[in-house]
Amino acid sequence: MDNRGNDASDKAYLKVKNVTKNFGTFTALKDISLEVFEGEFVCFLGPSGCGKTTLLRAIAGLDIQSAGSVSQGGKDISNLPASERDFGIVFQSYALFPNLSVADNVGYGLVNMRSNKADIRKRVDELLSLVGLNDQGDKYPAQLSGGQQQRVALARALAMSPGLLLLDEPLSALDAKVRVHLRHEMKELQRRLGVTTIMVTHDQEEALTMADRIVVMKDGVIEQVGTPEEIYRHPATPFVAEFVGTMNFLKASKGEGGQVLLGGHALSLSDREKEKLNGKDILACVRPEDIAVRNVDQATDNSFEATVKELEFLGSFCRASLNYGDGESQIAADFSINLVRDKGIEEGGTIRVALPENRIHIFSQG
Question: pTM for the complete prediction?
Fold first, then answer.
């Protein structure tokens, strides 16, 4: 499952084809197909239990698939043990050896390959410098912060110059500020090295900021594959729309001329969304930040009056709960602090808002 088209298929570095994974009577992965290209940073994104870690472990050979195939660099690795696959892996728990120094942790795999000591020392020094820990080699893991330990784990995973780097929720154990800083460092390092990378995460912000493409998963299947902007701006399913970002789900009905009726208001749609109008039950979806207020008047397309029921201060913006139509229908809108001040928006007040047609998403049901 890939959005690059058939011409790119033969150039894929990693191919997962019709992979199914069963644990007894439970099916964790259901006929998964996916292609990852050389140098890409791909995120597997989804809630707990969606199958993202199981898929990563199948690629690594840590949990061999029940059916289907995995190939890397044109070689079928479907039944190879993990020790014979070309990857480095970083776990959420770091999995560092507490009795070994930082330098010895990083060079552990090179020692097992029986590389000579001078080459090991040189490679370890290079890697510690690469992750900003060149003065920490003699310390032990317990003497380092969580962010530093994760850097050591990353350096160890890169020591063997793997063709594929696998990251299993590598930042989830860190506090928020360290996580934001380290994800930027990891992405810059990945770009510099050009190593093909797959990261498992349940954090949508991590996926949106780090990935070249995101694979959104639910209940053992892939819901959508796309760039961060595609996933956010053009969700393929209601689940993706709800899981990635914040979305209003508004019950609507089919109108005339490719319009939908929402609370008594006829809304125009983009050509892309008009093609989806095939069912009786329709969900019209719009993100809170896409609701327009500036330069909106009665002549503005898709505009209507709404009452501000609640106004919640969230720092850099306010989230308004707006009542419209019969007064019972409600929609959330995000307004900047400047907009709230300039327009005098307050609870109990009335404002005219517009839903731009290129920001409305339609899901037909039944």
Answer: 0.91
